[in-house]
Each structure stands twice: as C-alpha cells, then as structure tokens.
C-alpha cells in the first residue's frame, strides 16, 4: 500500500483482510485514525467536525447528502460538519483509510470568522486540498510537532476556503466574537444545564441571531456542540477504563442510555462497538 502523493509505502499500513475490522489511533492531540472495515463500518450519523480522509485501499462507499458516493485509493474525502453520512465497503475486499477530524473553531482561527467552507459531493477534486490533507495524514506514526500542526491546519483552512462551493449569496452579516464567546462558555460548562438565556448573557447577542451565527460559523447548533464536547470527554474516560454508568453522569448525561443514544447518533456505533474496534475491553 503506497502513499498516493509520494508513491512511498505507508509505514503502518496493513494488508486488507489481515485480522478483521480494526482501528488505530495516531499519537498526539489531533484526532487521527487509520482503519479497515470488511463490510458495514458505521450506521448513518453526523459529527460536528470536518472529517478529512484518504482512501488507502478498496472502495470506500458512503451515502452523503442523499446520494451514494464511492472513493477509490488515493482519493480525498471532505465531509462537512453535521452532515449525515454512513460508511461501508464497496467491494468484498473491504476498505482501508486514514481520517483526521478537524473542529470548525480550528478553521475559524485561520479564516478570522467567515462562513464555513463547503465542498460539494464529499470527494475532493482539488489538488490544494489533497496536499493539505496529506500534510496531516502522511506522518501517522508520530505526533505532529506543535508548529507543524498549526501550519498544516492553516494551510488546510486556506485550501478549504479556496475550494469552497458555498453559495456566494450566503448571509454575511454575523457576529463572530459573540458566537465564539458562547462556544467557549459551552466548553467551560460541560456538566451543567445550559439555556439560551445563559448564552445571551455571556455573548451579548440575541438568542436567535446567536443560534444562526453559531451554525454558520461552527457548523452546528449550540446544543449539538455541547453534546459533542460531552462525548469527547466521555471517549477519553472510556479509553481510561472507567465505567459507562459513571462516565454518563460525570459528563452531564441523564444516564447511560442517554449517553449511548447520543454516542450512536454521533459516531454510528455504540460505545461497546467503538471500544471493540480499538481493542479495549468494555467496563460495565
């Protein structure tokens, strides 16, 4: 299996069908995964980040914005935040890929507060995006150095913006500072009940204007953003081996069932299935 941009072998790539479905996590703070799935990978779901992937082998098939898509080896996928999609093998040999998840706020740091870029169809035809995603996924076995990661994310934001097919008539009147204040407040209060009144107070913005701005700038609603940050925290605790029931309460969910429903909606699999792909034993 070779890197489609350099024709060099991937240092950690594994043969298709080596040992069934598997997922590897790259070291470092940025969430980067390499995975192989033989059949259905995950049910329809959506997350509040960009998902940027390379198909390394097989046919990576998925349904996106109401249409079936098929990515071959060497192609780059760009899935927009909060767009529902699934994942499955397009042929009997399964599919192998790498993916990086990039939060909209990381893109906004480079763009300075603009409507999020959108790539039509979910599969990139733009060489600028191919190069930008390659910079984040090629060196998979080592964490990205801080400056290296920051440079790569800046280049990605610029490439996304340049390749964006966002309609030119999209609303341009918004308050980035107010939306970001609300976002930071949500991150600081994960285990607390939050109402739109609270976000109005902290941002100084009318609740309905704020909700519209938040979706435009961060790709999802304030409530959905809060749920996803709770799930991020929950995943970290699961990897540490803590019990699901305790994690649910610690992360602001009403109970374990509530957390499991939200987890499946976000990732297309249950916590038990997710931990199994990582080779981690489930804690009751």
Automatic annotation (TrEMBL):
* Keyword terms: DNA-binding, Transcription, Transcription regulation
Cell division as UniProt keyword: no
Cited Gene3D superfamilies: Homeodomain-like
Q: Which InterPro entries match?
A: AraC-bd, AraC_XylS_family_regulators, Homeodomain-like_sf, HTH-like, HTH_AraC
Which molecular function terms from Gene Ontology are attached?
DNA-binding transcription factor activity; sequence-specific DNA binding
Q: Which residues form the HTH araC/xylS-type domain?
A: 180-277
Q: Does the keyword Signal apply?
A: no
Q: What is this protein called?
A: AraC family transcriptional regulator
Q: Which organism is it from?
A: Sulfidibacter corallicola
